[in-house]
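ok trying this again, last paste got cut off
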Amino acid sequence: MEWEDTVLGEDFNPAFLFTWKGIQRKDAENYHKHDHLELCYVMSGRGRHRLGGKIHEVGEGDLILINAGEYHQPLLGEGEGPLVVFYVGVTNIYLEGQGANCLPISGEGPVLHTSGELKMKLARLCIYMEAEKEMGRFGRHFMMKTYAMQMLLLFLREQEQPQGAKPLDKCAFESANRKYLVEKILDYFEEHYAQKISLDQIAGNMYLSPFYISKIFKAETGETPIHFLIEIRMEKAREMLLGEPGLSIQEAAARVGYEDAYHFSKLFKKKFGVAPSAMRRQEPET
């Protein structure tokens, strides 16, 4: 039986309680506990957190697990802070071999030090939950619950390695990360090809450098990100021109992210060997 089956069982359905984002400028007054489970993500700064009588150093990117019944107290030492923290509260968690509203903790302890892809994922989940809370749109509670569940599962994944298992091969891990990064960029292209997109914009969205993104993308696909985006846009434009005979070249260009119809036409002809106007006159494919 797999680790997932033994830990999660057949029904993993936490109840979402709350989120809270705040700035910690001094020690919390009370050393306290509660009946629900909390996850605390450190968005920026450095400080400490007392958990079960032990003091842990925490900083940007750390995810702190506070199980039900665990006494805890955020602290700041001299010269530390302020800390920007994001709390998520959940309940109705019952895992095999664990107390109510408790997650298993590996030998690394209740503070998960993250970096790279995992750090980026957790930061985005916090941003998404905060946005849902602020906008107050229909279904926000359930959207926030799905994000909270992702945070819980990301923490559990870090505890997943079974006893006696060999550490993951570094090359295989890096390869998986690279493929995931490329998949995310391709998904972004598919959803936003009609908008203005730059390499700097993509890099900013992913908290990575343009050089790194371009290098990884080309290593995985053989093409630069921008060239691949052009390929997607041209294919989309071809489908539009064949499917809508009355569509103007200017409108086709605008629909795939180009204000300059002449530039669009040059790219289109380079890709397909014919001008967009000639493609438009062809019969739709069946």
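PB: full thing came through this time. DSSP finds ten helices and eight strands in the chain.
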